[in-house]
UniProtKB/TrEMBL annotation, chain A:
<dbReference type="InterPro" id="IPR050319">
    <property type="entry name" value="ABC_transp_ATP-bind"/>
</dbReference>
<keyword id="KW-0547">Nucleotide-binding</keyword>
<dbReference type="InterPro" id="IPR003593">
    <property type="entry name" value="AAA+_ATPase"/>
</dbReference>
<dbReference type="InterPro" id="IPR003439">
    <property type="entry name" value="ABC_transporter-like_ATP-bd"/>
</dbReference>
<dbReference type="GO" id="GO:0015833">
    <property type="term" value="P:peptide transport"/>
</dbReference>
<dbReference type="GO" id="GO:0055085">
    <property type="term" value="P:transmembrane transport"/>
</dbReference>
<dbReference type="InterPro" id="IPR013563">
    <property type="entry name" value="Oligopep_ABC_C"/>
</dbReference>
<dbReference type="GO" id="GO:0005524">
    <property type="term" value="F:ATP binding"/>
</dbReference>
<feature type="domain" description="ABC transporter">
    <location>
        <begin position="11"/>
        <end position="257"/>
    </location>
</feature>
UniProtKB/TrEMBL annotation, chain B:
<keyword id="KW-0813">Transport</keyword>
<keyword id="KW-1003">Cell membrane</keyword>
<dbReference type="InterPro" id="IPR050366">
    <property type="entry name" value="BP-dependent_transpt_permease"/>
</dbReference>
<feature type="transmembrane region" description="Helical">
    <location>
        <begin position="224"/>
        <end position="246"/>
    </location>
</feature>
<feature type="transmembrane region" description="Helical">
    <location>
        <begin position="178"/>
        <end position="204"/>
    </location>
</feature>
<protein>
    <submittedName>
        <fullName>Peptide/nickel transport system permease protein</fullName>
    </submittedName>
</protein>
<comment type="similarity">
    <text>Belongs to the binding-protein-dependent transport system permease family.</text>
</comment>
<dbReference type="InterPro" id="IPR000515">
    <property type="entry name" value="MetI-like"/>
</dbReference>
<dbReference type="GO" id="GO:0055085">
    <property type="term" value="P:transmembrane transport"/>
</dbReference>
């Protein structure tokens, strides 16, 4: 990605934590995460299942109430907002879900689904049938849905079209910031590309800011400006997309990248296989959380706390031994 | 329909039809089989079974339907609240339902009628209360399975209020089991009313009620088949048709099954 002009900071997350109470103890789903996002930028969030990516996205939108931390949107901490202001704010922050089958109300038609946010937010009156129709058609055009589908129910449509409805619903309110929670993982590859391209076009057209959560590294590479790698509720490495793929520093990122298939039959894969079980996120031990599975770990790794450090411009990593590991 | 028609006839004729044909006795004609004049025959007191069946709908069907409607609304609301909010509210509501459920429904109805005294309204209350827990359970289970789905979260993300989510998102999606349960419930309620009538706590004679007709006729089954078979068939066909209606209603309300 070529160097972009410094844009205004849209979202800043500071020390965000989300713990869940479980019978066995506190589950640290998101543990002390900080990052910031500029307008028009895409932050890709990658990590394996259960590492807290989706929870983080939802905590930022307050769909899950964060345990502590700050989410600063346009200069204000939204975690302090009351119900009324929060409702207003929802116009600007939206979410696109992973499963287009579960994320649409099976009893609402395409137009009802798109209309609902407009009515909830009081943008249109229910009686203003013409205005609503016009808006729905506009949005359907925007997300590339044929007008004739306006009165169909979700079960009559395929996954790609459903996901377009989901995107349309999120866009109905003209948001600034959209959390995309694995929006293409439930779709097959050809439709994935269509939806991704649509999302990129929309970003350019409407100046959207995305937080793009996925476990698919090729997708994240395609769409992101910056990438954050998450492991067990923490960001272990964050860098501009190109830099991360060219020069990964954290051993976990190494392992992740080594798992990307290369379209060359003669290419010998140097897979780094992670040994051992995923450490339990319930009451995690102090020290580096990856230490138990890290091939480079030393005893000290399980003793000190690590935080993200900037090691080259824009490239943050949470590992003390990245220099020694490099080769 | 029939029960409304009979009510209108009652009003128009100032109860003359009811008095002369439905409850007046004619012992000479007792136990006469079906004929052109009395198409379902006459019962043990010489009353026309056809007319008694018609007038009986008011008690059997109407009471059953209203009772179940009341318990669907009350039970459904309680179940939806319990399922939606979970935790403490869920516990309080559902444990109370468990207490009600622990008492056999017929026993509960008997206790209520015994406490309040027999009478139409009291039977209605008894039926409604004894069916509340079943509805609360069915609705709660359905609500719990729906409320964690992503489209509920999507509604929250656009700022929908709890009430809107319950009424626009959760209830339309949990209608199917409620409708099925309700039609089954009406059938059950008809049987319960019949049972109560049989025990002398329900509809008081000489008012015609299908269950009471059936149980009174029991004694004469060897001599006159028609006075047991006809109310019995009536109850059976009613329950069958209610179930079919419920089935059809569920399909009609589900956009997934529409073509």
């Amino acid at each position: 990605m070529e160097e972009k002009v410094k844009r205004t900071e849209l979202l800043q997350v500071k020390n965000l934590k989300k713990y869940f109470k479980t019978p066995k103890g506190m589950l640290h789903a998101v543990d002390d995460v900080s990052f910031s996002l500029h307008e028009g930028e895409t932050l890709g969030v990658v990590g394996e299942s259960g590492c807290g990516k989706s929870t983080m996205g939802r905590a930022i939108l307050r769909l899950h109430e964060p345990t502590s931390g700050e989410v600063i949107f346009k200069g204000e901490n939204i975690l302090k907002f009351d119900k009324k202001r929060m409702k207003k704010l929802r116009e600007e922050m939206q979410i696109i879900f992973q499963d287009p089958y579960a994320s649409l109300n099976p009893r609402m038609t395409v137009s009802e689904t798109i209309i609902d946010p407009l009515i909830i937010q009081g943008k249109y009156k229910k009686s203003d049938k013409e205005g609503l129709q016009k808006k729905v058609r506009e949005i359907m055009d925007l997300v590339g849905l044929s007008q004739k589908l306006i009165n169909t129910y979700p079960h009559e449509l395929d996954g790609g079209r459903r996901q377009r409805i989901g995107i349309g619903r999120a866009l109905a309110l003209n948001p600034k910031f959209i959390v995309c929670d694995e929006p293409v993982s439930a779709l097959d590859v050809s439709i994935q590309a269509q939806v991704l391209n649509l999302m990129q076009d929309l970003q350019e057209e409407l100046g959207l800011t995305y937080m793009f959560i996925t476990h698919d590294l090729s997708v994240v590479r395609h769409i992101s400006d910056n990438i954050a790698v998450m492991y067990l509720g923490q960001i272990v490495e964050k860098a501009p997309a190109k830099l991360l793929f060219k020069n990964p520093l954290h051993p976990y990122t190494h392992a992740l990248l080594s798992a990307i298939p290369v379209p060359d039959p003669d290419y010998k894969m140097k897979r780094i296989l992670l040994q051992g079980e995923l450490t339990s996120p319930i009451n995690p031990a102090p020290g580096c959380r990856f230490a138990k599975r890290c091939i480079h770990a030393t005893p000290e790794c399980s003793q000190q706390e690590y935080s993200l450090k900037e090691v080259e411009p824009g490239h943050f990593v949470a590992c003390s031994r990245f220099n020694e590991i490099k080769n | 329909m029939i029960s409304i028609t009979t009510t209108i006839i009652d009003v128009v004729t100032d109860n003359r039809v009811y008095d002369t044909y439905v409850i007046s006795q004619n012992l000479v004609m007792r136990l006469k089989g079906p004929s052109a004049e009395h198409i379902f025959g006459l019962d043990e007191f010489g009353r026309d079974i056809f007319l008694r069946m018609l007038w009986g709908t008011r008690y059997s069907l109407f009471l059953g339907a209203i009772g179940i409607l009341a318990s669907t609304i009350v039970g459904g609301t309680l179940g939806a609240i319990a399922g939606f909010y979970g935790n403490a509210i869920d516990n309080i509501v559902m444990r109370f339902m468990d207490i009600l459920l622990a008492i056999p429904s017929i026993l509960l109805a008997i206790a209520i009628v015994a406490a309040l005294g027999p009478g139409l309204v009291n039977i209605l209350i008894a039926i409604a209360i004894s069916y509340i827990p079943t509805f609360a359970r069915v609705v709660r289970a359905k609500v719990m399975s729906i409320k964690d789905q992503e489209f509920i979260e999507a509604a929250r993300a656009v700022g929908a209020s709890d009430a809107r989510i319950i009424f626009k998102y959760i209830i339309p999606n949990s209608l199917a089991p409620i409708i099925v349960q309700a039609t089954l419930g009406v059938a059950g309620a008809i049987l319960s009313i019949a049972g109560l009538s049989f025990l002398g706590l329900g509809i008081q004679p000489p008012m015609p009620e299908w269950g009471a007709m059936l149980s009174n006729a029991r004694t004469y089954i060897r001599d006159a088949w028609h006075i047991t078979v006809i109310p019995g068939l009536g109850i059976m066909l009613t329950i069958l048709s209610l179930n079919l209606v419920g089935d059809g209603l569920r399909d009609a309300l589900d956009p997934r099954l529409k073509n």
